[in-house]
Amino acid sequence: MFSDDEIRATILFKLYKRGNWGGSHTAFENMKKGFKEGELGKGGLNRVDKIAKELMRSGLIVQKPTHYGLQVSLNPRQNETIIAIMKKYFPEV
Length: 93
What we know:
Blueprint: H1 4-18, E1 26-27, H2 37-40, H3 45-58, E2 61-66, E3 69-74, H4 79-89
Antiparallel strand pairs: 1-3, 2-3
């Protein structure tokens, strides 16, 4: 079962791998892809939603509302913090 910190690092790593910094966005729903509900424990994919919204409130992920849905990207002003969080679980960053 993934801890909240592991989920947080995985979400950031997914956006990092896609190159979604600043002006390059992806759909909010794409952050849930790749997680298996059995590995998330109680709450399932709702935990991923909750943690992603926490990342937006903390300013690590920026949002861009569009007419076709919410788009998100990594905040380039927080790049050192984001990389430090990812390195705990993904040392190859």
